Amino acid sequence: MRIKSSGILLLGAILLFSCDKKRVFDEYKSVGSAWHKDSVVSFDLPVLDSTKKYNLFVNLRDNNNYPFNNLFLIVAIETPSGFTKVDTLEYQMANPDGTLLGNGFTDIKESKLFYKEDVKFKGKYKIHIKQAVRESGKIPGVEALEGITDVGFRIEQKD
After folding, report:
1. What's the number of CA atoms in the CB half-sphere (13 Å) around residue 115?
2. CA–CA distance from 97 to each of 56, 66, 68, 113, 143 (Å)?
3. How do the domains of the chain map onto residue ranges?
4. Which of 15, 30, 43, 130 is 20 to 30 Å apart from 146, CA to CA?
């Protein structure tokens, strides 16, 4: 009976992951209970097919400790030649009533945030993500951003 149950679980896992045919890269890194303003989360991307186009996403896991409605990120994409393109991005993270946006049944929500579309890669790239949240009326950034637990990066192949 135990072998049969293990087989069913394995089959279920295979089916779950095989349904995600667009996924080329999907990785998360933990930032602990708070994301420090000087902490940069980096991803080494695999070498991808240079004839295809890809859509890029920043993925986040957050919980009810996240105190803001919006999130500001600085995302840098480093090319094989060393050139770095930097974008400052803003995402809405909560509804006006304060409930978190994203998917999940518990207080942990997962958000798939659009970054770029129709990107072509030629060689090995790196992604660097850091938070840039500031409180209203204050110049220094939030030292430790509560509520963000994991930062991820996802690449999907364009149809």
Report:
1. 28
2. 29, 13, 11, 21, 25
3. 24-157
4. 43
Strand order in the sheet with 109-119: 23-30, 148-157, 54-62, 109-119
Q: Residue 43's closest CA among 133, 119, 155?
A: 155
Q: Contact 102/62 with Cβ under 8 angstroms?
A: yes
Q: In angstroms, how far is CA 127 from the centroid of its own chain?
A: 11
Q: Under CATH, which number does the domain 24-157 receive? A: 2.60.120
Chain segment 52-107, per-residue pLDDT in tens: 999 999 999 999 899 999 999 999 999 999 999 999 999 999 888 888 888 888 88
